Amino acid sequence: MLRLLVLALLLSLSSSFFVPSAPFALPSSSLSASVKLVNSAGKSCNVAEGSKMSAACSKLGIKPKYSCKKGDCGSCTVSVGGSRVKACVGKVPAAPRLKSVAEKGLMVK
Predict the structure, then answer these.
(1) How many structural domains compose the chain?
(2) Which of 6, 33, 58, 64 has its CA 20 to 30 A from that of 77?
(3) In this structure, is residue 20 part of a structural domain?
(4) Is residue 23 assigned to a domain?
(5) Which of 84, 86, 87 is nearest to 55 (CA)?
(6) Assigned domain for 18 exists
(7) What does the pLDDT read at residue 95?
(8) What is the pLDDT of residue 96?
(9) How far apart are CA 92 and CA 80, in angstroms?
C-alpha cells in the first residue's frame, strides 16, 4: 500500500518537473548584415552578407570572365578585402575588420 502511494506521488510530481522548455531562437532581423562594397572606380553599393558574389559584381558594374560557372577554372576570381573569391560560386563575406597598427605588430611611437 505504501509503495502504491509513493508511486502515485512520484508520478504526480514528475509531470511538473519535466515540462519541456520553450525553444530558443534569435530574431531573424538581428542576424542580417549589410556590407558596403566599393569598386576601383569609386562606385559603391550595399549588399547583404552571404549573398551571391556574382550579383554584387553586377551591381558594381564589374564583369568577371566566366568560363565554367562551377568554380573549377578560377577565371572569375575577384579580390575582396585582400582575399580572393570566385564570383560564380562565392558569397559576399562579412565586412572586414580593420586592424590597428599595434595589432599588426608594428611599433607605435
Answers:
(1) 1
(2) 33
(3) no
(4) no
(5) 87
(6) no
(7) 72
(8) 62
(9) 9
Q: What φ, ψ does residue 15 adopt, rounded to 5°?
A: -65, -30
Strand partners, 46: 36
The Cα 86–Cα 69 span in angstroms is 9
CA 11 to chain centre: 46
Strands 83-86 and 77-80: antiparallel
Please tell me the predicted confidence (pLDDT) of residue 88. 93
Q: Parallel, antiparallel, or unpaired for β 34-38 and 44-48?
A: antiparallel
- Report the half-sphere exposure of 21 (CA within 13 A, side-chain side): 3
In a domain, 107, yes or no: no
Please report, in tens digits, the pLDDT of each residue of the chain (109 residues total).
Answer: 777 777 776 666 655 555 555 565 555 444 456 777 777 777 888 888 888 989 988 888 888 888 998 989 999 998 877 788 899 999 988 876 555 555 556 655 5
